[in-house]
Amino acid sequence: MSNDRVVIVSAKRTPIGSFQGNFESLKATELASRVIEKNINDISINPKEIDETIMGCVLSAGLGQAPARQAAMGAGIPSESGATTINKMCGSGMKSIMFGHDSIKAQQNNIVVAGGLENMTNAPYILSKARKGFRMGHADVKDHMFLDGLEDAYEEGKLMGSFAEDTSEHYQFTREQQDNFAITSLERAKKANEDGTFDSEIVPIKVLNRKNEIIINKDEQPFKSDITKIPTLRPAFRKNGTVTAANSSSISDGASSVILMLESEAQKRGIKPLARIIDHSTNSQEPKWFTTAPIGAIEKVLEKSG
Q1: Among 54, 96, 144, 258, which is least packed by CB within 10 angstroms?
Q2: Residue 264 neighbours by CB distance under 10 Å
Q3: Which has the closest alpha carbon to 101: 269, 281, 270, 267?
């Protein structure tokens, strides 16, 4: 049925943990399992009905084989169900949803779990030359989080934040504008956590600390940040730059997932969709201008969808 849209019938996430914060004792796959389990219970379907789990994960070193498979099985989805891990910088989770959508429209799957998982805190260090052995002298230790996540693959050692500086300079965004945007965003995030706006989407996570078991049910970062210090921070990526640790993306831990099916399937099951997926699009350009790539994707999807 060409007019039978793919719909999102459940959408859940963990609270967002800060770097070396609440989720330092948990693997990314464990976080994802708890979220997927809640997805399934949320709409009262049998885990056996999940045809495939597609999860994005960029920092997969140290997680073991097939992170998506681990997340699915940890949520009670049987091993007979398919599982695929997607590694796409910045957009792994979104691409997973796009692939899930397409697999349903192509009648390859009926019900799909899609989302993403990362625990940047637990990204390991790498001894890239250890397999051959160290004969003598100093050895290089590489940070998986930097090497495979935060550093450009084409300009060795250049951090992604440097490209944010290029964007800021190109569009003439001032430090004050960026700080004000960050402050507004932080205030909104804190308010949404406090007034219950996020309650329906957040899955509380049990964590064992040194003394006892605690339940994490709020995003961590908004409550750790001091807004008054934001205008005083030094540039993080370039001398006399405008991008700081506060007005750029934070290093965080968490997982999120949705359940996808056709609208007709949802109606048959008496499930009220949260959203319909009208269309999607991908746009690529020179890697160092990844910051503006979504503009082209938006233009494409608007043109496609009329």
Answers
A1: 144
A2: 13
A3: 281
